[in-house]
Design goal:
The chain has five helices and four strands, in the order H-H-H-H-H-E-E-E-E. With 171 residues, the chain is an alpha+beta fold. The radius of gyration is 19 Å and the shape is globular.
Length: 171
């Protein structure tokens, strides 16, 4: 089995290094109420560790943690709390990512832009799809990808990369 605990520790150290002046001494975003035992930085590090191992399912992640790593994470929160805290710390995670990209690439003068279609559903089902249609500005649209020679219904992902292949921003 992979050593999830060791990688979690390394990623947590990186998060602590790049989150100075964003979190308090316990690794949490400032807020009122009870101080959580499983810090916000630990939530971000656990999320990044799961992404590193291509664990897309929270159910799978928590079943692995319960089965193999129960003693390594004594203050582990429930799956529902983990999901809520991931949403709460999304902005912090993005700020840490930008700081890491800045440290790796530095002050680049040249960038590359690339785009990729992200399908919401199959093209034949596009008229019945209700996903994202409530807000006109963020609604998916029809498009054509010349590189793949296919039509799609969804979004177009644009990424800005430096010359060292580090993504600086995306839309």
């Amino acid at each position: 089995m992979r050593n999830l605990t060791a990688n979690f520790g390394k990623i947590l150290d990186i998060c602590k290094k790049f989150s100075k002046n964003l979190v308090n001494e316990r690794g949490n975003l400032p807020r009122r109420g009870v101080v959580p035992r499983f810090s916000d930085l630990e939530v971000i590090a656990l999320s990044l560790t799961a992404e590193k191992y291509s664990i897309d399912s929270e159910s799978l992640l928590f079943s692995l943690l319960e089965e193999y790593y129960k003693t390594d994470f004594p203050n582990l929160i429930s799956r529902r709390q983990y999901n809520d805290r991931r949403k709460f710390t999304a902005n912090l995670c993005e700020q840490i990512r930008k700081r890491i990209a800045q440290a790796i690439d530095g002050d680049e003068d040249y960038f590359c832009i690339d785009s990729k279609p992200i399908s919401v559903c199959r093209f034949a089902r596009a008229k019945r799809c209700k996903l994202g249609k409530k807000d006109f500005d963020t609604a998916p649209n029809y498009g054509f990808c010349a590189a793949q020679n296919t039509h799609y219904y969804g979004y177009k992902l644009h990424a800005l990369c430096g010359l060292k292949c580090v993504i600086h921003s995306y839309d």
